[in-house]
Design a protein that fits this description.
Blueprint: H1 3-16, H2 22-29, H3 33-46, H4 66-77, H5 86-97, H6 103-112, E1 140-147, E2 157-164, E3 170-176, H7 181-194, E4 200-203, H8 218-222, H9 231-239, E5 242-245, H10 253-272, H11 278-296, H12 317-320, E6 323-328, E7 334-337, E8 340-344, E9 361-366, E10 372-376, E11 379-385, H13 427-434
Parallel strand pairs: 1-4, 4-5
Antiparallel strand pairs: 1-2, 2-3, 6-9, 7-8, 8-11, 9-10, 10-11
Helix pairs in contact: 1-2, 1-3, 2-3, 5-6
Protein name: ISNCY family transposase
GO molecular function, one term: nucleic acid binding
Pfam family, one: HTH_29
């Protein structure tokens, strides 16, 4: 008998003995008068066991079968579903195994088998959360996460993702071998084609997003010079997107928490789909993004979107999301790039190509697919490579007497003869030298 049931028995017994009234018993037990009357009737008929619930000790009618519980436990410990949290595992059971159970049921089965949770739950830290933006497209957070997304089936790779601050939706994502400028160009292009141009982008202070020479001296500031931009920063400037750089990871916590969720879920999802390469991972990425947005996205405060579609009069995205280089135009309207000579291709523009003065600093834009364009006064002109003339090397002339031959004395030269050779000395001289004195 539990403490609660014992309390009910004592109070109703005092009512039976006439020590209190029925209304007082109902008030002490916080029950209705009709309920205490039922308890009194059962105690009079059955004694102390009348206050015990009739289902106590019985298996609930809606309880899972032991076979189903054992099946869930085996699947939880299998290689197919390893490292799944309780909520995600319950979703996968319903999707792939046809077993409809709640996350709390999965948790009870796991605890009964003495299996520890995937991640230790720590008490939440007190912090003041930043309010979401009211409209979608007002702020988009970008970042990359280098991780073993395919476990041991492939090398570690980087997931570049962009999340909308107002809705928590993933607006773009791409897998790359590493975090690089080209990857963020592809990420931005994917976002613009799907949603539009956002008002601002929030990122960290990686060298992809800022120039290494962004700190100006006092003289440069007084002269009114602007900070130099990186390749990605120049593209955002042309698109009219405000670029905000965070100084701490906590400042862009929404994208950081997104990567925690994706590392917890997408590793298992990629394993279940049999993905073994970065190409296959990018192929199934739209399906993963759709499932994530359906489960975690929220509705914005203002239903109007702040994303702006790309206008027709704006340049092609290939000429905005590209690499920019500065070169000096030669006298023959040619320039040098990557050890090659280029000239403006005929028919690159319908209008007449304006004359460009020699020695002018012009901008060369290189697209992601390797095409080159000369950017002058807001227009792009395609460049073509021109072969360099092959020059014949002039024969080398040698000055007379510049090369001296080594001197070799003759065999009978005096220098080759020793100063004194006993074999060539006269016989008298040798005898005089050997005679006794």
């Amino acid at each position: 008998m539990s403490k609660k049931e014992l309390m009910r028995y004592k109070v109703v017994s005092r009512w039976i003995d006439g020590l209190i009234t029925g209304s007082e018993a109902a008030e002490l037990l916080n029950l209705s008068y009709r309920q205490v009357c039922r308890l009194k009737k059962r105690i009079l008929e059955e004694g102390e066991t009348g206050v015990i619930h009739k289902n106590k000790g019985r298996k609930p009618a809606h309880a899972l079968d032991d076979e189903v519980r054992q099946r869930i436990l085996e699947l939880h410990q299998s290689e197919r579903y390893k490292n799944c949290n309780d909520v995600h595992f319950a979703e996968l059971l319903a999707k792939y195994e046809g077993i409809e159970v709640s996350p709390s049921t999965v948790r009870r089965i796991r605890l009964a088998a003495r299996i520890k949770a995937k991640r230790k739950r720590r008490p939440a830290k007190a912090h003041r959360p930043r309010k979401r933006k009211p409209q979608a497209g007002m702020l988009v957070q970008m970042d990359g996460s280098f991780h073993r997304w395919l476990e041991d089936r492939a090398e570690p790779m980087c997931l570049l993702a962009a999340i909308d601050d107002a809705t928590g939706r993933i607006v773009a994502a791409v897998f790359r071998p590493q975090e690089d400028t080209e990857g963020y160009f592809l990420l931005t292009r994917q976002m613009i084609e799907r949603e539009g141009i956002p008002m601002s982008i929030y990122s960290d202070r990686h060298m992809i997003f800022r120039s290494p020479h962004d700190k100006l001296t006092i003289e440069q500031e007084l002269a009114g010079e602007s900070k130099p931009l990186s390749q990605f920063g120049q593209a955002l400037r042309d698109l009219g997107i405000e670029h905000i750089q965070a100084h701490t990871p906590q400042a862009k916590g929404r994208i950081e928490r997104l990567f925690e969720t994706l590392q917890d879920r997408w590793i298992v999802e990629l394993r279940l789909r049999g993905v073994d390469s970065i190409e296959e991972a990018n192929r199934v990425l739209p399906e993963l993004i759709e499932e994530h947005n359906k489960a975690f996205a929220v509705e914005p405060t203002d239903p109007h979107s702040a994303f702006v579609p790309l206008e027709q009069n704006q340049p092609d995205l290939d000429l905005i999301l590209c690499y920019r280089h500065w070169r000096t135009l030669g006298t023959g309207q040619t320039l040098s790039f990557d050890h090659k000579t280029y000239a403006i291709a005929e028919g690159s523009q319908k209008s007449v190509i304006p004359p460009i003065p020699p020695k002018t600093r012009v901008e060369v834009r290189q697209t992601l697919d390797g095409r080159l364009f000369l950017w002058y006064k807001g227009k792009a002109y395609a460049l073509k490579e021109i072969p360099k003339p092959k020059r014949q090397a002039a024969p080398s002339k040698q000055k007379a007497g510049s090369k001296r031959k080594p001197h070799k004395p003759d065999e009978n030269h005096p220098w080759r003869k020793p100063l004194f050779n006993p074999k060539e000395a006269p016989e008298t001289a040798r005898c005089s030298q050997t005679a006794p004195s």
